[in-house]
Amino acid sequence: MDPSRRGVLTATLFSAALTVPPFSSSARAANDPVSPGKATTRIGASQVASVRSMTERIANILDEFGAGHARPMAAAFLVNTVGPWLRAQATEHVKRDMLAAASDLTYLTGWMAMYEKAHGLGQTYYTKALKLADEAGDHVTYCRTLRGMSLQASNLRHGRMALELADSAAGAAPSAGPRLVAFLRGQQAHAASMVGDRHQAHTRLREAEAALSQADNRRDAIGGYDQTAYLFHVSHVLMEEGDLEGSIQAMKQSIRVQPAQERQGRVHAYALLAQRQLRYGHLDAACDSWARFLDEYEHVSSVRGDDHFATMRTDLAPYSKARAVKGLSGRARQVAAAKA
Question: For the domain 174-260, what is the CATH code?
């Protein structure tokens, strides 16, 4: 598959009736999950380390510069390097490790496709990541991918599907560490709030908070979960419940503790905060948040960021004569010109 065929890939449709492949109890590393073909090379631990390192670097580029820059790199590396390595000769141990590393990168690529609103493509990557994780016997990536699929469903307002996937992810990880537990419970809370289950939503939030308090301070490049992410979920749950003021306060707290390198996350968070502040009737506060959004957005290549920029202009158009909006409009024109 040529990673440059963006139009073809983006046209893939998201399915709300997807059948999720179950996780098997044993790895089947000897089977080739990618494609048949004669293995012409032999790989070892160094190639596995290369995939892990590349995945971490792509994740860092994603955080700082956006999925628009990071996803093409990931797609090309998967096709041109990881694919041949998955077909190469290797010991059973190395092949399992390579499958697990490939699953991680495939999950990340699916997450970026989802973020860029190529939802059918994202779902395809997620499904492949599940299969690779199953082949590798990698329980963590399998559960993490299910959780990513739940997030995608929630972004598309498929609440019941989001909850089923989130519960499946949690159910498949009974012995997960505290950070992964928090990662899974937070998404369960959001999904439960979407279907109106307030009791389950707040129970899951408490479980996420408790698990996070037991986690170490390590920052995971893939599938990390921290106080920023937890408060982001709190904000989502409160928003689903109609507590607009509480949602705004939680989002402010989430941004306040966000690591400096997570620029793409701030683009999204400031946009959501601004939209909610305007809905609450706080025009000046919304303009201030939109200004902070622009400070981050000008450095990031992101379809979702572009959508937020368009939303900002649409939402503020009725207030064009307000002083705060006039000041913001000039800055918005400068950013738009720089990105043209």
Answer: 1.20.120
